[in-house]
């Protein structure tokens, strides 16, 4: 989709449609500004997007009316990981975040979609700011490569295991358990990767921001990269481990040979 700058604002070109659906699961935003944040800062950007959604929800719906599927609070018992994933994405593989995919497995009604349609800016504590433009909203297909159906998925940000590793509860065991808890088949092959390519750079896990602001740190302080092979194609997004709702532990469908 092409864009027009109007009075300093980045807007969809005339003719682009953002018709609200009766029920949608996924929204995709353009992130614009100079410089764009690095993929290594995905966690920070994911947290900023959530903060922006919380703020906009208060203005549109009321101070005490923030939807649980946006905040992750007060979700029904047993409804694990059905609230929003705020997933930064590098759509052109240049190492910079230029898209945000917001995915809510349990769906968003029209009022919640209106909240997202009004998002325009991201600000960080160091003074950086970026423009947000809603590019598309609809079902899972809106998420592009993050929501493809595929049997092989490869890390794009580090996976931080959420539980302590034990002799009979290895890293691989934890990944399998998380997949089961998401209603996914267990991977039949798990390959650990030392590095992944981010734009023109080869990066190890410690190059990424891995800890949330003002939050308790996970048992895993290093992180790891993986290539997971499932017995059948699964649909994304696939994000596992600590910080998965903010861009950590994110995988992308591998549609070509590595």
TrEMBL record:
Family matches, as InterPro entries: Cas_GSU0054
What is the phylogenetic placement of the source species in the record? Bacteria, Pseudomonadati, Pseudomonadota, Gammaproteobacteria, Chromatiales
Q: Give the source species.
A: Acidihalobacter ferrooxydans
NCBIfam families under this entry?
cas5_6_GSU0054
Protein name stated in the entry: Type I-U CRISPR-associated protein Cas5/Cas6
> Which domain of life does the UniProt lineage start with?
Bacteria
